[in-house]
Amino acid sequence: MAYCILIRHGRSTANSQGILAGWTPGVALDETGRGQASGLVDRLGETPFVHLATSPLQRCCETAGPLLEAHGLEAQVHDGLGECRYGAWTGRSLKELADEPLWRVVQDTPSRATFPSGEEFPGESMQAMSDRAVAAVREIDAAVTEEHGAHAVWAAVSHGDVIKAVLADAVGTPLDDFQRLHVDPASISVVHYTSTRPMVLRTNDTGSAVLRPPKPTQDTPATGDAAVGGGAGLGSTP
Fold it and tell me: Which DSSP state fits 145?
């Protein structure tokens, strides 16, 4: 089977503000995120991409742009790679959401978490998000393998929680443990779906060995809790 490079979108304006963007339209990359997107071209060097799929959301499409141009590809926009539908949580601050009773479910037993629908945005369970994301990646991977061969390389540009769910499935860990994974903006993870099992070859590669934990602020969720949606990354301060 082909090699799938999972790319989280670059830092967005919502990430830098500590806001859960979800499916809010018009959420773009911030200045740091645009630099991260451009930097992916050099970071991935001579990687022979034959296909690139992306979430339909703007921040992912903007992240995919430089790679598409560099490799002469057109994006396959796939709803299955889209962000979790956070419903009534959409557009709210992570600090505020950390006080919601549902926050602990999302942190401790996410397979049981369902986001309530709001007036503007429908909700979705984290299990449903995981199921459709894993199905989308496996579907695209099979199609790329059939067209380009078993050693073809393709990319999927998506979101933090979505990529964490795909990685959890690939290593065979329950969704309830997926908050143990971390996926920074513009990070690269690699999964190879073989005939017997998925193999995780790389996770959360940001192209730097420097670790700069964000400074604690009033908008930072409790220590040990994962930022829903993926957060702004370890090298950033909201």
Answer: H
- 120/113 Cα distance (integer angstroms): 20
Phi, psi of 115 (to 5 degrees): -80, 135
Look-up of token digits 């396959």: 76
Bridge partners of 157, per DSSP, are 7, 54
E strands within the chain? 3-8, 49-54, 76-77, 153-158, 188-193, 198-205
Structure tokens at 232: 């702004």
Model pTM score: 0.89
Bridge partners (DSSP) listed for residue 189: 6
Main-chain dihedrals φ then ψ at residue 6, nearest 5 degrees: -90, 125
DSSP code of 109?
Answer: -
Query: 94 near 61, Cβ under 8 Å?
Result: no
**What pLDDT digit, counting tens, does each position of 53-82 carry?**
999 999 999 999 999 999 999 999 999 999
CA distance 193 to 198: 4
Q: How far apart are CA 83 and CA 129, in angstroms?
A: 8
Q: Which of 1, 15, 41, 9 is nearest to 187 (CA)?
A: 9
Q: Pick from 6, 43, 38: which is nearest to 206 by CA?
A: 43
Q: Is the pLDDT of residue 215 over 90?
A: no
